[in-house]
Write a structure and sequence with these properties.
The chain is mostly helical. The chain folds into 2 domains: about 220 residues, Growth Hormone, Chain: A (Up-down Bundle), CATH 1.20.1250.20; about 200 residues, Growth Hormone, Chain: A. It starts with a helix and ends in an 8-residue tail after the last helix. About 40% of the residues are buried. The N terminus is likely disordered.
């Protein structure tokens, strides 16, 4: 009786600790999202444009983080040899956030020379590379840490709630940050400096939240000998045919999606003549639909499984590029606006299922001793295929006119449908 009581007390304390860890992780996710939105995406692109960056430099801003994912397998190997997921995360994520203080100091000193703006562009791109490298080294370890803490039966619901909170942070952060940058008395560049300081503080605060999470020693899960060194660590997940098939699907999917996705907004602005304000509004509505549907898809994935969810939503996402084939110049303006509104809400809500399913199925099919390594290999492969898709799409779009861009959208649809085929052979 005494032993049973003690075991129950231990289980209850552990359950409370897990709940605290998941709450801390949710807050960490929202704060990390604020940092990411300020040091990347539209805000950083706008900052570089204010400095006079050219289209090639803006393109580098998108491709550099993708290429940094090549280092994720190395990060997984290093983290598996470390005694603490928490400590390893501090050694990787803290430098990736503190390094932006260099740009903040330079913004304070801006105006020393006439060419300082050009130097700031080069410095910013260099910081993007360094920050992305540190982030890539810690990403797989972080995913593995969280995967070990989330109970399998709650995986869909927890990740959907966590993503909803992060989306809310994005919806609040971006308008406020944009307003500060646009209305700061010292100008947009100085305004970005103010916003950047807030982003750095949010990034550091997110790491403080990790202090309240149960730490994991990855060595306790290592049942495979590490005597084979680097090659054996990287090749271990490939002994499972199921993991290989999923990797083929996810890489092919990344290429097919990025072949067209980066050019949807460009098509609206240049070919359809939609104002930038409306483009931003449509994107916000899509994000709102994504946030609301995450809760629905999270519960559904726990019931029917992630593979079925991805196939169902993936088929819908695959045909969405064909929508642009029916938005020719003959459309009545009011009718086009209604089409665009419905389209963005539909795409936002459906993408929520694909993103959630792809995240959860990785956790479900990979053995726990290979979590970090497999997550890293997937991220590296998808980073390469996505960057390649964006590059190929950019080359085709650069040498094409109205009908040519529509041809890219049609080709993307075909490739997306083909990418789903390997998923039929993945066993969850």
């Amino acid at each position: 009786m005494i032993e049973t009581y003690v075991e129950e007390e231990i289980d209850n304390k552990f359950e409370i600790s897990v709940r605290t860890s998941l709450k801390a992780s949710t807050i960490d996710g929202s704060l990390s999202t604020i940092f990411s939105n300020i040091t990347g995406g539209v805000l950083l692109s706008s900052f570089l444009l204010d400095l006079g960056a050219n289209p090639f430099e803006i393109g580098m801003l998108s491709s550099l983080p993708m290429l940094a994912n090549l280092l994720q397998p190395l990060g997984a190997i290093l983290s598996n040899r470390y005694h603490s997921r928490h400590d390893y995360g501090i050694w990787t994520f803290l430098p990736s956030r503190l390094i932006w203080l260099i740009l903040l100091v330079c913004l304070i000193l801006r105006g020393v020379s006439d060419r300082f703006s050009e130097q700031l562009i080069s410095l910013t791109l260099a910081l993007v590379v360094i920050s992305s490298v540190f982030g890539a080294l810690g990403s797989a370890s972080w995913m593995s840490w969280l995967a070990a803490l989330v109970p399998p039966k709650l995986r869909g619901r927890y990740y959907s709630i966590r993503n909803v909170v992060s989306n809310i942070a994005t919806l609040i952060c971006l308008p406020i940050a944009s307003f500060i940058i646009s209305h700061w008395q010292g100008g947009a560049i100085a305004g970005y400096g103010i916003v950047l300081s807030i982003g750095i503080l949010a990034g550091i605060a997110s790491l403080v939240c990790q202090q309240f999470m149960i730490d994991i020693d990855p060595k306790k899960y290592q049942i495979v000998s590490i005597e084979g060194g680097l090659f054996k660590d990287l090749s271990a997940p490939f002994q499972d045919r199921n993991l290989i098939v999923f990797l083929i699907y996810f890489s092919f999917w990344g290429f097919a999606v990025n072949l067209s996705n980066p050019f949807f907004n460009l098509y609206m602005l240049e070919n359809l003549g939609v104002d930038i304000t409306w483009v931003t509004l449509f994107s916000s509505l899509g994000s709102g639909a994504n946030m609301l549907m995450l809760l629905v898809w999270g519960r559904l994935s726990d019931r029917v499984g992630n593979r079925r969810l991805i196939i169902f939503a993936g088929l819908a996402i695959s045909i969405t590029p064909l929508f642009w084939l029916f938005t020719g110049g003959a459309q009545v303006q009011a009718q086009l606006w209604i089409y665009l509104l419905i389209f963005h809400i539909f795409v936002g809500g459906t993408w929520a299922a694909v993103d959630l399913g792809n995240n959860n199925i990785q956790i479900a099919i990979a053995p726990i001793q290979h979590h970090a390594t497999f997550f890293a290999i997937v991220s590296a492969a998808v980073g390469i295929s996505s960057a390649l898709g964006t590059t190929v799409g950019g080359i085709l779009a650069q040498y094409s006119h109205y009908e040519g861009i529509l041809g890219i959208f049609f080709l993307s649809t075909i490739l997306r449908l083909l990418a789903i085929v390997p998923l039929l052979y993945v066993h969850e």
